[in-house]
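Hey,

The postdoc asked me to send both predictions to you directly instead of through the lab channel. I've kept everything plain text so nothing gets mangled by the mail client. Protein one:
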Amino acid sequence: MTKARLLRLSVVLVSIFMILLIIVYWDNVGTAHFYLHTSFSRPRSPGAIAAGEDWEALPDVDEFLAKLLSSSLKQNSSIPRKTEQLLVQGSNKPVVSNLEENVRGYDWSTHKDRNSLDQEKLQVERQRTLREFCANSSFTFPTKERSFDDIPNYELNHLIVDDRHGVIYCYVPKVACTNWKRVMIVLSESLLEQGVPYRNPLDIPREHVHNTSTHLTFNKFWRRYGKFSRHLMKIKLKKYTKFLFVRDPFVRLISAFRSKFELENEDFYRRFAIPMLKLYSNHTNLPTSVSEAFGAGLRVSFSDFIQYLLDPRTEKMAPFNEHWRQVYRLCHPCQIDYDFIGKLETLDEDAAYLLQLLKVDRLLRFPPSYRNRTASSWEDNWFAKIPLAWRQQLYKLYEADFVLFGYPKPENLLKD
């Protein structure tokens, strides 16, 4: 009897210790702001759980964590946020101190004198298209049928979490991700300058924006929470506002090529340009630095780049680089029910509407567009010298992104 009582007492003490440990862990990453601070007008999916609803759809461990966190939140719901006391000076343009940003140039004109889109209807249509094709068994593509639990942690590294405002952003390179990452840094206060969080997105240097240590992403959860990581991910996916931005897949490829191979980029030259020049342009004894190569007129052509994407050896060596990896592989739109789908083609309107829905439009505004942004009208010229068979293969490679996000099939590029 004594041993049995000691055993029961030990179990109780261990349980209490685990609960306290979870509370301490969670407290360190901002659970005081766990609840969703936004309201969207679109209907939630049947499995989605809004603040204040029952938790009966969750498994036992999820229910335990959710109720534990809920009790903690009630005690902290009245904590004021210093950032919410700051008002954006609407007419002042932020000072652009970064050299690269000055070279690229900003277009401020797009923020005024535009007819406002019916954003609510637009979002309903975009989400309807995505859900219909995800549910359509006749439309298939790799990884479509797997569940969220089947996605390995390393494939969740594009999901950035802001616990302060209850936001999850899946970033897609070449789709305004630098500025959206800046916004997430300002909201989450994850980066300080002389002990003070950044308030203006454009003040944040690019090298800090793309530093992986700056952002809390889903793939980091395992190190923090161990076996509870997936449960916490699922709870946040149900409670937080999830958004992503996309663009025409072919235009995104052009933008990636311009950015990584037309400008002197040492890393991309060594990792990608040298193999492309050897494989598809029959060059040997290439310079070791990009500046020497450019000086000698040795540059990857757009044709080399397309051949590289279509070459079956490419994926066997390693997954596509994130700058040309398909959006469905980066953001898992059939496994994650996104609340907001923005498009680069309507970036200014979409960004303003999203910040309003997130109730942070008084804290900051989204930085303006670049003047020299790659345009859809460039497609015909860029693909003019690409053989028809390659264009058709390339479309099949990116077809899921075209279909899921409502981009029309580029028939003019796929026919003689």
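Protein two:
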Amino acid sequence: ANSSADDENKLTAKPRLQREGSCASLHNSLMRNSIFQLMIHTLDPLSNEGRFREKASILHKMAKQKCKEEGPTANGVGDKKLPNSSRVAVEVTPPMNGVAGGDQEGEEEEDEDQPLSLAWPDTPRKQITYLLILPIVLPLWLTLPDVRRETSERFFPITFIGSICWIAFFSYLMVWWAHQVGETFWITEEIMGLTILAAGTSIPDLITSVIVARKGLGDMAVSSSVGSNIFDITVGLPFPWLLYNIINDFKPVEVSSNGLFCAIVLLFLMLLFVIISIAACEWKMSKFLGFLMFMLYFVFLVVSVLLEDKVIMCPVTV
């Protein structure tokens, strides 16, 4: 009788998105997570009909659920004594804001989906943040159409190009102010570039990587970090040099830096150490791997500063 009841439960299990659906239908944990990740990656974020954010949120919440199976059999399917807590509760019907779920994460996604509002916030913490970012947010709000509004969706090319122009303007201010701070405190331009400017230009990449990683798009997070540096080297550096050459009758740009050759060699060594570290951690992101990355950056920073200050002499000078 028990075996027939188990067989009946296995046959009636419906592996589809529904409320209180038994997680035993997807019996293999690795296969379950792989299917969810594959489904998230195959969603079309550019299609309005696909409702990418809603579906990705639903699948992501299902992937995070823990199946507390008791007494698994050989094929990984639990018996009929599964507690009610082992059932996956997924809110399929989206609320009014179009975001699945009602937890804190859903509220954060709701704030991201809403158009920008300059209304005065309620809590003191938000009020302080409001005043700090107002000099940046206000010109963006005045000049760029908010594509999160239905009436402004068709103006997305203007918003895209305008955002790039504002990034260029803010980057110019950041470099200018960093240069002035360096001169005030007698810090060389090379050290400011290796520390303050390097961190300032990487923070946007950090934020975007964290956002897409939380949505389950780990490949996009890693490729963003690699692609941004490639773009900086192949476009960010030669484009202003090209403009300088055109304005100055193709006069060559003189670059002088202490230990430039050794710094380039050090970059290749750092790349090698990064690959070795990731391979040593079995190609998985963990806290230990993060600690290794911090240590490698600290070593690179110290050696680069010593090369620039001529504490360590590079045998090859450029």
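Summary for protein two, as requested: The longest helix spans residues 156-184.

Thanks,
C.
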